[in-house]
């Protein structure tokens, strides 16, 4: 029963993670070969795709979940965190609000790129047609990012960094989205005053 609940909890995050890869493959015209958005057996998924033309495209495909999961996790929690929580408090949340918070945390937890994502970036360089000096330079540039991804995955196993990040996405993500929206409103107001 515990594994079934865990699998259900991870599902929104994993699906969003894999969908992020898929969307970026479409953006960069990297042909998608096979997709599994979610596998109930081990709470995982994958997107197999052909190599894009450029290294930066492969890097963005690999780290896409960091950006999209963070955004969507904050967006899912937005109505509860911005509209309800500050005005009526924690005790008045209904089941939909609590479900939104749980889904938001799940999506945020899966924002950290996987070890497979990091290896994809590393292997792209090795399989490319770059000359030897360019390959070494590219690997030196990309190595810190790959190290950070491996470190975050390692820390997620022991310190639950992924859960911490998911909670941060849920509670701070909506505030950041609101801040960005308000900046746009303020800019429009200032531009309207200046043009008048």
Question: Overview of this structure, please?
Answer:
The chain is mainly α and 196 residues long. It has one domain. It contains six helices and two strands. Strands 1-2 form a two-stranded antiparallel ribbon. α2 (55-88) runs antiparallel to α3 and α2 (55-88) packs across α6. The longest helix is centred in the last third of the chain and has 35 residues, at 161-195. The chain is globular. The termini are far apart. The mean pLDDT is 90.
Overall shape: it is globular
Termini separation comes to: 64 Å
Mean pLDDT, all residues: 90
Strand fraction band? 5-15%
C-alpha-based Rg, rounded = 20 Å
Give me the secondary-structure topology.
Elements lengths: L1 H26 L4 E8 L4 E6 L5 H34 L6 H15 L5 H13 L4 H27 L2 H35 L1
Helix pairs in contact: 1-2, 1-3, 2-3, 2-4, 2-6, 3-6, 4-5
